[in-house]
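request received
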Amino acid sequence: MTRARIVLLNAALGPLDYRVPEGMAVEPGSIVVAPLGPRQLVGVAWEPERLPSEEIEEQRLRPLVQAFDAPPLPEPLRRLIEWTADYYLAPLASVLRMTLPSTSALQGGRSVTEYRATGAEPERMTPQRAQALERIAGRQGLVSELATAASVSDAVIRGLVKSGAVEAIEVSLDLPYPQADPDHNLPMLEAAQADAAEALADAVRASDFAPFLLDGVTGSGKTEVYFEAIAEALRQRRQCLVLLPEIALTEPFLKRFHARFGVEPVVWHSGLRQSQRRRAWRAIALGQAQVVVGARSALFLPYARLGLIVVDEAHETSFKQEEGVHYHARDVAVMRAKLEAIPVILASATPAIETRQQVAQGNYRELKLPARFGGAELPEIAAINLVQDPPPRGRWLAPRLVEALQANLDAGEQSLLFLNRRGYAPLTLCRRCGHRFQCPNCTAWMVEHRFTRRLACHHCGHVAPVPEECPECHEEESLVPVGPGVERIADEVAALWPEARTAVVTSDTMWSPAKAAEFVARMEAPHDDAHAIDIVIGTQLVTKGYHFPNLTLVGVVDADLGLSGGDLRAAERTFQQISQASGRAGRGEKPGRVLIQSHDPDAPVIDALVRGDTEGFYAAETQARHEAAMPPFGRLTAIVVSSEKEADAKVAAHRIAKAAPRIDDLIVLGPAPAPLAMLRGRHRLRLLLHAPRSLPLQEIVRDWLSDLETPRGVRVIVDVDPYSFL
Ligand code: ADP
Ligand code: ZN
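response:
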């Protein structure tokens, strides 16, 4: 083609046409550099018939600057980008950016020049040259590295290069990854595992779209089973993508993967260095990276030969992205599998109602693992009624939980106390005047963190030192913490058992894969090791994926926490979190026990957990959603309007509401101040749209908002299928 339609990486621009200079090869998917005014921008060539644009005469087109030496984005990925932009009402460029996270990766074949001795003698030999040649024999490296190794100056090495005794070698920065062996360490699968693994391997061989729900209780060997699907994809020379909800979970995953396949998979997450990112991206795009494990951002990478997608812990809400393009990685993963014509496995012990509904409708195939591996029993679960059996004043652990912890310590077994609240106390106030510490930027209390001696806002990250006196009444030492966070529970544990070895695990303490590895090593250390752990106090971060055979007691400190707030998924999420936390208990030979503290143990969700009535709970929840026409039976979309000026946000939100189309069955709620009425210094109002599935909600919203001008400083965010109602 002599002209090309280019989507530039700039969300404000539509597609633009350019001239393809002679000698430059450009096809749909090609990644190019195009001029825009005085600037140059990266963009991707697209099929012109799929993206209408203003027709410009041939002569007026500007020429493209460069086409990168990288494979064009494959067609199924281009279709996925279009679908995502369309479904989540996002600019194409914003979605495209997620596939091209590193411009350095686009520069083909980058290398460094290294040097090594040729074996030839230089014409003129000096004592220094002789010393250098002797010491660098068999070595290869940069000039400076060889000079250091030989204790000579760089100039000596350079002289040897000139004389031909040392030669230059181009070394690619992008070393290929070692190859996994599907038969490295084959497991002995139990019958139910083998059946599930076979169904998955068949689907990989068939290489057609096939969505699966791998529904197995905690500890049933879901990972072991989907590893067999990965093995099959490796045999077929296809790539695999495994999505995990938290990067902290990659660490144990890497170990297990290594044990099964002999090498580590390729890791992708936001914490990679640029060189790692570049290496991974190129290996993915060239088809050399066999198995990629990552957070949701790995989903949009340009796999050359994708053969399988796994979404592990698929019920996790962290797969929903809440900034930039508001997409749900689980749902986009299924769409990608469809467009790539490959199987996708959603693995979970507590599948989301949305996913269960897909099974019920016959869209997804369900594979069940009903029992724990190796005959391990599911833990026994009991509730502690905090009204009848409360902890002493100022404490948070009820006597029965304290007794159980004591027994576990005596037995040399590990315990987990689960409380989904970081920091020391969620609220700090002045005992004298009642002053409460609020974030200056958000509708939120400042949370005290004793480890760092700070008050922190968990929404915007604002931090302030804990003051000596009340800023309002100036009384000294009058500040009191209200309510518990994990740090406060750790204090209580330390007061009860000064000799117990504890660890607090939250995103504050476990913020990198290395920290996660350290925690795992401590949990696995022998009981008499100085680094061993007796009691873990943690947030939801410790409740997933981990397998610690000596952990036999789980205490849920506050089961009521997640139930307040009126979120449509509150009960479901509580059920999932407590099930996952319980799932850490008794995974080895010793049986496990779970104690759930609640002020209302008769609440359906607690009652179902205690009775082990998963199906009953889900049936009631599903029924309630059905009756209210809530997702997945009806659809929701949120429109959040924000501005630094409250009046501007209000005016804009009301203008949007007034322009709402009158359509039967479309209910527009609001605008009302969002529960987080202020966030990062912006005032926020929400509109919530509720519609039956039959309405083309995206089209409606697109038409509705396209005619409206947003005043300066006002931001309008559309959140399709929202998970956060803050
Ligand atoms: P899940 O992901 O369902 O919670 P895992 O895959 O973590 O379960 O399995 C729980 C434990 O049982 C792990 O330590 C795993 O290695 C072990 N396991 C499961 N199946 C097998 C098997 N067939 N052979 C050996 N070990 C297994
Ligand atoms: Zn804040």
